[in-house]
C-alpha cells in the first residue's frame, strides 16, 4: 500500500475530531463539544498540519465523516472538508461514521465482528455490522436507520461472537435487551473518531473512492424528519 498523507475531519456526533496520517503515523485530536463543531473543526485540522510541518497542498486527500449522525453535524463536516479541498485542489474521501465506530471497537476488543449503533433520536438507531479483514472493516449488511428492537437483523453469523459499541446501545438498552451470549456490549459511550476514519481512508483510497469536492455528499440514512410545532410557537 502506498504511503499516504491524509487528513480526516469528523463532526457527525457529539465529538468533534481531526486526525492526520503521515506514512504509518497518525496524530489526532478530539473534543466532546456538541455545540462547538463549527468553531473547532478547522482549527483542529490546521493545528495537526502545523504539528506535522505539512501544508494542505502536500496531502493526497481529505477524508470526512459523511454520516450518519446529527443533521447539523454532518453538514458542518461536509462543508468544512469541501472548503479545504476546494482551496487546495484535493479530492475527498467520504467515510462512514458507523464503520469508524466499528474500527474503534475492534481496536479495543480485537473481536473481528463488530456491531455499531448510534443513537438516531426519535426512538431509532443508525446500525451497521462489520468484519475485520486485512486491516479494513468490511460491511456485512447495508447501513440503516431502524427501531432499536431490530438490531439483531445486523447479525450475519449466528455462531460467531460480536462486539457491540456506540451510543445506540446506551440510549435504548431496555428495548435492545436481552442480548444473546454471543454479543459483548461494553463500550457504549464511544463516538466515532477521525483517527479511525483516517486509518480506514487508506483502504477507501486504494478502492478508488476519492471524489471531487463538488461531488462529495453527506449520508443521512433518514431522508425526512417530521417536526411538530410546539403549542404557542
Give the tags:
disordered C terminus; 6-stranded mixed β-sheet; Nucleotidyltransferase, domain 5; alpha/beta; 11 strands; Gcp-like_dom; 27% strand; 233 residues; cytoplasm; 5-stranded mixed β-sheet
Give me the secondary-structure topology.
Blueprint: E1 5-10, E2 15-22, E3 25-32, H1 37-52, E4 61-67, H2 71-88, E5 92-96, H3 97-109, E6 113-119, E7 125-133, E8 136-139, E9 144-146, E10 162-165, H4 167-171, H5 173-176, E11 183-185, H6 194-206
Parallel strand pairs: 1-4, 4-5, 6-10, 10-11
Antiparallel strand pairs: 1-2, 2-3, 6-7, 7-8, 7-9
How does this model look, in words?
This protein has helices at 37-52, 71-88, 97-109, 167-171, 173-176, 194-206; strands at 5-10, 15-22, 25-32, 61-67, 92-96, 113-119, 125-133, 136-139, 144-146, 162-165, 183-185. A hairpin with a 2-residue loop joins strand 2 (15-22) and strand 3 (25-32). The chain contains six helices and eleven strands. Strands 6, 7, 8, 9, 10 and 11 form a six-stranded mixed β-sheet that branches. It has a five-stranded mixed β-sheet with strand order 3-2-1-4-5, with helices on both faces. Mean pLDDT is 94; it is low at 225-233. It has two domains: 5-96 and 193-215, ATPase, nucleotide binding domain (Nucleotidyltransferase, domain 5, 2-Layer Sandwich); 98-185, ATPase, nucleotide binding domain (Nucleotidyltransferase, domain 5, 2-Layer Sandwich). 30% of the residues lie in helices and 27% in strands. Helix 1 (37-52) packs parallel to helix 2 and helix 3 packs across helix 6. With 233 residues, the chain is an alpha/beta fold. The longest helix has 18 residues, at 71-88.
